[in-house]
Amino acid sequence: MSAKRRTLVHWFRKGLRVHDNPALSQIFNDARASPEKFYVRPIFILDPGILDWMQVGANRWRFLQQSLVDLDKKLKELNSRLYIVRGKPVDVFPELFERWNVQLLTFESDIEPYALQRDTTVQKIASEHGVKVDTHCSHTIYNPELVIAKNLGKAPVTYQKFLGIVDKLKLPKVLAVPEGLPDGIKPIADEFEAVDSCVYDCPTLDQLVKRPQELGVNKFPGGETEALRRMEASLIDENWVAAFEKPNTAPNSLEPSTTVLSPYLKFGCLSARLLHERLKEILVRKPKHSKPPVSLVGQLLWREFYYTVAAADPNFDRMLGNAYCLQIPWQKQPDHLEAWTHGRTGYPFIDAIMRQLRQEGWIHHLARHAVACFLTRGDLWISWEDGQRVFEQLLLDQDWALNAGNWMWLSASAFFHQYFRVYSPVAFGKKTDPTGAYIRKYVPELAKYPAGCIYEPWKATLSAQREYGCVLGVDYPHRIVNHDIVHKENIKRMSAAYKVNREVRTGKQEDQNDYEPSPSQSTGKRKASSEAKKTVAKRRR
Ligand code: FAD
């Protein structure tokens, strides 16, 4: 009797949750409807090949490991479990289909090019084995393909345009956790489990984290349980939610001034659709509230916007061949890149941010603005692709679409074109942390520097540096560039690059504004040089 049973498989990739998971709910519902016919096996494929090309730092591996352990626990509460299968999807699926007598495979759809390619191959293999495949879009609130279709087959390239389209779309129904499976439909052990009952168990931390010395503090543990707890904690103060305006949150507070739900949304431990629904419910109760682009709902819609534009271009994460991205002659500067990467630029605000990123795996959005602008058009004139790669390794929330989209924005390569508005690596941080407490925490060498020069240690005399216990060039680096000089040169370089791009591109792109620095925080003149003004005026036409 049991030999004839077919298996229903749900393949977790992102979407590491049991709530609002339509692809998981589908197999649970089918199995509950005909318990005598089916076994259920939710799987996660641990692909060692990914290590060859994907940059994943130790902190993100830990986040994934914790998320898998939590997911297994959640599935056990539903009378199932998580099966970890080791290997490449294209290699493991033919075997699994045979071994488990699979009838149906479900998974959440993905827009990343490597995932699309992989999924197409798996779908072909499934069809060769007579296995039905059903996919569901649940990583984003809106289906990027649908938004593009509504815009006559083109991705909307401005946030406002995007809002106009999604405003008319129906919101998807947010699903509850599926009901647990009845007893008696747990799969019998396959030949591998019979030999080793732990064969499909979750990986341990040691198995995933090859360089444990790189693990930082575990400030944001992975998993759906923590995601839901964090969401509830973020939403508890409804006045805060209603008044939220991103530009008024601090990049350098000692505890995060925004939700830090991004790692949970990235791995799908939290459903963006659930968070959106909960936010909307609060806003109904608080009719006087902030609005997109600066509100919390507005933040989620930035995520949707980038997913939509990225879905339309497989080259979204590179400059060449990218339909959105201006071509800018960035330079290779390995020593400057190295200094930026490791928080040794000699600009304490920049270094504190980069060190926080390495230790904790998360930094505030405006902190990302500051370091991204510094690396690219502001100071170092290094390609956004290099910065993207470093973020890819260090961020817990690293996300193909969001990382690339935001790097293009900050480097004024796409979506934002006011390149003459440059963040000051000195003035910007002072605004929200005039005493430099954030710098003292992440750049402890400078802890004894007084507020007056902690952002600009080069202003201290040598004898003062000795007194503060940190001599520049010995205990902390001299600044690698002089911002006051280089940012002006770089504005000219941008202006020239824009001119060349204008000559080769014909498409009109509108400027849009989210929360670039106000004149008091920027060292570039907000009022553009006459050259830059002309550039912007022309682009607007
Ligand atoms: P909140 O302000 O609490 O916002 C709630 C959610 O909205 C976030 O969790 C996130 O999912 C979404 N969101 C907020 N801001 C943005 C934004 N600008 N673009 C897209 N979605 C947004 N975010 C990532 O999730 N992954 C990345 O790889 C990533 N790379 C970035 C690279 C650069 C150079 C920059 C400037 C920004 C990047 N961001 C990225 C966007 C943003 O910085 C983070 O999403 C945000 O800081 C996460 O913190 P939070 O959860 O507290 O955000």
TrEMBL record:
Tagged with keyword Flavoprotein: yes
A GO molecular-function annotation: deoxyribodipyrimidine photo-lyase activity
Assigned keywords, A-Z: FAD, Flavoprotein, Lyase, Nucleotide-binding
Listed Basic and acidic residues bias regions: 502-511
Gene3D superfamilies the UniProt entry points to: 1.25.40.80, DNA Cyclobutane Dipyrimidine Photolyase, subunit A, domain 3 (1.10.579.10), HUPs (3.40.50.620)
PROSITE patterns documented for this protein: PHR_CRY_ALPHA_BETA
Residues annotated to bind FAD: 258-262, 299-306, 397-399
Record region (Disordered): 502-541
Domain of life: Eukaryota
Note on how the cofactor is bound: Binds 1 FAD per subunit.
All copies of domain Photolyase/cryptochrome alpha/beta, residue ranges: 6-141
Cited Pfam families: DNA_photolyase, FAD_binding_7
InterPro entries from the UniProt entry: Crypto/Photolyase_FAD-like_sf (IPR036134), Crypto/Photolyase_N_sf (IPR036155), Cryptochr/Photolyase_FAD-bd (IPR005101), Cryptochrome/DNA_photolyase_1 (IPR002081), DNA_photolyase_N (IPR006050), Rossmann-like_a/b/a_fold (IPR014729)
Cofactor section: FAD
GO terms under biological process: circadian regulation of gene expression; entrainment of circadian clock by photoperiod
Site (Electron transfer via tryptophanyl radical): W330, W384, W407
One term under GO cellular component: cytoplasm
UniProt record similarity statement: Belongs to the DNA photolyase class-1 family.
Name the UniProt record assigns to this protein: Photolyase/cryptochrome alpha/beta domain-containing protein
Highest classification ranks of the organism: Eukaryota, Metazoa, Ecdysozoa, Arthropoda, Hexapoda
